[in-house]
C-alpha cells in the first residue's frame, strides 16, 4: 500500500506571513514590534458570530507609532442588531468594507511576526483564528499578551479576591486616566490597549524578575 503524503499548499500571502517567523529572534520590550489590536464583533459565539472590524496600532521601542495603524471593516454575512448599541456599526452603512479573506490578508501583512496585545486577548485572537480556519488556514503564530494580565501583575495582591479580580478595559483606563472618547471602536480600544501596555510594562520592568515571556498566552488557549 502506498500513502500519498502531499504537502498542503497554502496561498502566497500565508507563506509570506510564515516567512517572518524564520528569524527566531527573542522577543524583548526594546527590540520587538508590538501590535495592540481590537475586534468588534456581532456577538460572542465563535462559531456563529463574525468580526465587523479590526483596529490595530503598532508599538516600537516603547512608543506608539500612530502613523503605523490599521483599520478595516468587514462585509457582514451575519448581523445581530442587538449589538449595534455597543459598536455602532450598521449592517448597511456606507463604510467601505472588505471580504473576510481580503481583511485577513491585509491584517497578516500588517502584523508580520509582531507580539500581539489585546484586552481579554483570547477572545479577539480566537475570533481571528476562526476566520483563518474558515479559509482553511492554521491559527496565528504570533506571541500574544493580555493587558489584563499585565495590569493584574502591577497590583498588590493583598487577599484572595484581589488575586481573582478581572479588570475591564474601562477599569484600567480610569485608573490610568486614559481618555475613553473612542471606546467600543476597534481603533479606539486598540489605542487604549497600547497605552495600558506601555504604562504597565514601565512599572513591571523596574523589577529585576520581570520577563516578557512570562506573559505570553499558551497557544492551546487560543
From TrEMBL:
CDD domains xrefs: DEDDh
GO cellular component annotations of the record: cytosol
Keyword Nucleotidyltransferase: no
Any single GO BP term: DNA replication
InterPro entries in UniProt: DnaQ, Ribonucl_H, RNaseH-like_sf, RNaseH_sf
GO molecular function, one term: DNA-directed DNA polymerase activity
Alphabetized UniProt keyword annotations: Exonuclease, Hydrolase, Nuclease
Domain named Exonuclease: residues: 33-206
Classification via SMART domains: EXOIII
Domain of life: Bacteria
Keyword Hydrolase among record annotations: yes
UniProt cross-references to NCBIfam families, sorted A to Z: dnaq
The protein's role, per its UniProt record: DNA polymerase III is a complex, multichain enzyme responsible for most of the replicative synthesis in bacteria. The epsilon subunit contain the editing function and is a proofreading 3'-5' exonuclease.
Quaternary structure, from the entry: DNA polymerase III contains a core (composed of alpha, epsilon and theta chains) that associates with a tau subunit. This core dimerizes to form the POLIII' complex. PolIII' associates with the gamma complex (composed of gamma, delta, delta', psi and chi chains) and with the beta chain to form the complete DNA polymerase III complex.
Protein name: 3'-5' exonuclease
Organism: Gelidibacter gilvus
Amino acid at each position: 500500500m502506498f500513502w500519498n503524503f502531499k504537502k498542503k499548499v497554502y496561498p502566497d500571502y500565508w507563506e509570506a506571513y510564515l516567512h517572518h517567523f524564520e528569524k527566531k529572534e527573542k522577543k524583548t520590550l526594546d527590540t520587538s514590534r508590538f501590535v495592540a489590536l481590537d475586534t468588534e464583533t456581532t456577538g460572542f459565539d465563535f462559531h456563529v458570530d463574525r468580526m465587523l472590524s479590526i483596529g490595530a496600532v503598532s508599538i516600537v521601542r516603547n512608543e506608539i507609532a500612530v502613523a503605523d495603524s490599521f483599520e478595516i471593516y468587514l462585509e457582514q454575512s451575519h448581523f445581530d442588531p442587538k449589538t449595534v448599541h455597543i459598536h455602532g456599526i450598521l449592517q448597511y452603512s456606507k463604510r467601505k468594507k472588505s471580504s473576510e479573506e481580503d481583511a485577513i490578508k491585509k491584517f497578516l501583512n500588517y502584523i508580520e511576526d509582531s507580539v500581539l496585545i489585546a484586552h481579554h486577548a483570547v477572545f479577539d485572537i480566537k475570533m481571528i483564528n476562526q476566520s483563518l480556519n474558515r479559509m482553511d488556514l492554521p491559527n496565528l503564530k504570533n506571541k500574544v499578551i493580555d493587558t489584563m494580565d499585565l495590569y493584574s501583575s502591577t497590583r498588590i495582591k493583598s487577599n484572595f479576591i484581589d488575586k481573582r479580580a478581572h479588570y475591564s478595559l474601562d477599569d484600567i483606563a480610569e485608573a490610568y486616566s486614559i481618555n475613553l472618547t473612542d471606546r467600543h471602536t476597534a481603533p479606539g480600544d486598540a489605542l487604549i490597549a497600547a497605552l495600558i501596555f506601555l504604562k504597565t510594562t514601565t512599572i513591571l520592568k523596574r523589577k529585576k524578575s520581570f520577563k516578557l515571556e512570562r506573559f505570553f498566552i499558551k497557544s492551546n488557549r487560543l
